[in-house]
Amino acid sequence: MKIENQNIAIKAENITKVFGDFTAVDHISFEVKKGEIFGFLGANGAGKTTAMRMFSGLSIPSSGTATVGGFDVYTETEKIKKNIGYMSQKFSLYGNLSVKENLDFFGGIYGIPRKTLKTKGEELIQKLGLEKEKNKLVSELPLGWKQKLAFSVAIFHEPQIVFLDEPTGGVDPVTRRQFWDMIYEASDRGITIFVTTHYMDEAEYCDRISIMVDGKIAALDSPANLKKQFDAKNMDDVFYELARGAKRLE
To answer: Which parts of the sequence belong to the ABC transporter domain (predicted)?
Structure first.
């Protein structure tokens, strides 16, 4: 199943995920343009990770329709997985393998030809400044370097879309900013970025954002438009107003 608009990377209509009596994701609808940096924001427990798992082919929705990279989330999950990159909020590389061994391992999984893999691996190690650390176990690297390496591996095979789940959690502000520079560079190459975060200041780095509150999308627009709409100085104020409004409706 191919989406009609070739400029759309992700399209969701009333996607819902229910676990027993609990609705984790409640009829959300949105579109993400190709090459866009799309922020999926919300407090912990808002439903961000559950939604991302459905869009990355790791979980089947309870209802609704969606396509990712033109592929259906119900019937074409394997095709979705081949066309995306994924970086989880928990560190996703193998700590007991070296930097180079991780690149070789994941490059093989992604089907990168051996000759190409060697060249791309050397270029990436040099780009990250890890020449001296390439034979060091990944577990011995500082957290910031681990996260940069994990992101680099997630886009190693030049996927259409990369899903980043809380990618900057626990790292210092300088490293966070460097990480976002890498995201911008990937977006400039045409890779669509779908990123979840609970850091409201990171919303300013996105082209558009949606804000999840209790499993629903409470707002969706550019950061500038949302701040104008809520007469807010920053995204923290926007999120506070949305959360307060939701509590008033309970």
So the answer is: 10-239
